[in-house]
Design goal:
Diphtheria Toxin Repressor, domain 2, 8 helices, mainly alpha, 166 residues, single chain, elongated
């Protein structure tokens, strides 16, 4: 081997450590997923078992060792599929969160906006029941004015979830 070939293959110790840390970070993100998200992730069985194991651990040192072991497993794998699966799960989570924010905005708009807001909502979602929404709006407004708990506003939110998902 010539010196040029050795230079091409040479990787600094710092670079190796950075790569190891990136694998451990990836493992931590996967371990932090909810049970349903984790089960939907595409990954080899050895990796799945190791992450299930780290989720069971409670001692700091044991968790750290297990994550390093998972990093070692990831180092030997093509991590692109795992990263793509993780991104898909996180995107689903972000999309669900965005939908909830939109519903909350509609609820607040309907509670505060009266007939104008109701008309806007019905233009966008014609399948909604005008009469039911109008009754809930009135109750929500009364509860707000009387400083009662927002029971009707919660019911509006629940109804919006049903209507928007149709």
């Amino acid at each position: 081997m010539s010196n040029e070939e050795l230079d091409d293959d040479w990787v600094s110790k710092s670079q190796i450590k950075r790569e190891a840390e990136s694998f451990v970070d990836l493992a931590k993100k996967i371990a932090a997923l909810s049970k349903d998200q984790f089960e939907a992730m595409p990954m080899p069985e050895q990796l799945r078992r190791a992450i299930v194991e780290v989720r069971k651990l409670s001692k700091g040192g044991a968790i750290k060792r297990q994550f390093k072991y998972i990093g070692k497993i990831l180092r030997d794998l093509d991590t692109e599929l795992v990263k793509q699966g993780l991104e898909r799960q996180l995107d689903k989570d972000r999309a669900a969160s965005a939908r909830l924010h939109i519903l909350e905005q509609w609820r607040d708009k309907l509670v505060a906006g009266g007939d104008v807001a109701l008309g806007e909502f019905l233009n966008e979602f014609p399948q909604a029941d005008r009469q039911q929404l109008r009754q809930l709006q009135r109750k929500a407004k009364q509860e707000f004015e009387q400083e009662k708990p927002p029971v009707a506003a919660r019911k509006i939110f629940q109804y919006l979830r049903v209507v928007v998902s149709e």
